[in-house]
UniProtKB/TrEMBL annotation:
InterPro entries: FecR, FecR_C, Ferrdict_sens_TM. Residues 117-204 form the FecR protein domain. Gene3D superfamilies: 2.60.120.1440, 3.55.50.30. This is Ferric-dicitrate binding protein FerR, regulates iron transport through sigma-19. Residues 254-320 form the Protein FecR C-terminal domain. One of its GO terms (molecular function) is sigma factor antagonist activity. It comes from the Bacteria. Pfam families: FecR, FecR_C. The lineage of its organism: Bacteria, Pseudomonadati, Bacteroidota, Chitinophagia, Chitinophagales.
């Protein structure tokens, strides 16, 4: 079984002691996120109780070691060079305007929202799409090994599962957005034959062009918005009020402050279409402060368990909770 390299152990100690810098925390998260298709964003708050921080670190290390033990050992040089290359990408891949031919073998699924309420769509890779009214999403019933590609007409908020070796591509209104794992809102604007793309977390690369015009590209970071049409290709800031409007009607915001264990679990059930059973007398007494926004189901479960002194078992979409809890 492999163990984290010395640099990562050094960063882990700094995190536990509460004196890790923002750049070091990003380096620590980047290292973890290269190992699988899920994210665990470690809290930077130095006021986080030491016992909770210790539990989170233990779970993080155990998950990485478990995954490494399941795969055949790779040559040391190629493994670390691959990790370094992935880290340099910083979570994005620039769109080159290629065509993937992704519908050739996989049957297409059409999700149409012709009503007034938001529709939740869970894609084959567990990414969540909040399809807004008067919108149409097209995607395959399973993604191929190299790319995850969907087509959008209208507007949707995407929570994309992170898979470093399988980019997520959205085609909309003559433009293409490509990410590895992030959250963003994309709206096609028929009146201007353009799009508006707002990045909530991570980075997104966008490319597109209108007939007779050269291709334009942009790389957007969190809280940036691209307005693109035949007359402009402009990057702006996403203000807090605008982000709140983009999230309205969705279950994207999962930031809890002193919230009962039962309420957190109920929100988790509603978002991920799962069923939870609590077999603990102590867990219902827990009041949780935890941010599960833009986290996968597995990482959400890990963070809840770490902050509540609980344990869970998952089988066929059913989750059983046990543990001492917060007596």
């Amino acid at each position: 079984m492999q163990h984290p390299p010395p640099r990562i152990r050094e960063l882990a100690q700094k995190w536990l002691q509460g004196n890790i810098s923002a750049a070091e925390l990003a380096e620590f998260n980047d290292w973890y996120n290269q190992f699988d298709d899920e994210k665990l964003i470690l809290p930077a708050d130095s006021d986080t109780p030491a016992v909770i921080r210790e539990r989170i670190l233990q779970r993080l290390t155990a998950r990485i070691q478990d995954e490494q033990s399941l795969s055949a050992p790779a040559p040391k040089r190629s493994r670390w060079y691959a990790m370094a290359a992935a880290a340099c990408l910083g979570g994005l891949v620039i769109v080159a305007g290629q065509h993937y031919g992704w519908w050739s073998s996989a049957p297409a699924i059409h999700q149409v929202n012709s009503g007034m309420a938001m529709q939740k769509v869970i894609l084959p890779d567990s990414s969540i799409v909040w399809l807004k009214p008067d919108s149409h999403l097209q995607y395959p019933d399973h993604f191929g090994p190299n790319v995850r590609q969907v087509k959008l007409t209208g507007e949707a908020l995407f929570e994309v599962t992170q898979r470093p070796h399988q980019p997520f591509v959205v085609e909309a209104g003559g433009y293409t957005a490509k990410v590895l794992g992030t959250s963003f809102n994309l709206r096609v604007v028929p009146a201007t034959k353009g799009v508006e793309l707002s990045v909530l977390t991570g980075k997104v690369a966008v490319a597109g062009s209108k007939e007779g015009q050269p291709k334009q590209t942009a790389v957007l970071a969190a809280r940036q918005k691209l307005v693109a049409d035949s007359n402009q290709f402009t990057v702006k800031a996403v203000v807090p009020r605008e982000q709140s409007l983009l999230e309205a009607g969705t279950q994207y915001n999962m930031n809890f402050r002193r919230t009962t264990f039962a309420e957190v679990i109920q929100r988790l059930e509603e978002k991920f279409n799962i069923s939870c059973q609590i077999e603990s007398e102590g867990l219902p007494h827990c009041s949780l402060t935890v941010d599960l926004t833009d986290q996968s189901l597995r990482q959400s479960l890990d963070l809840i368990a770490a902050t509540s002194n609980g344990r869970y078992q998952m089988q066929d979409g059913n989750i059983t909770w046990s543990g001492e809890g917060c007596r």
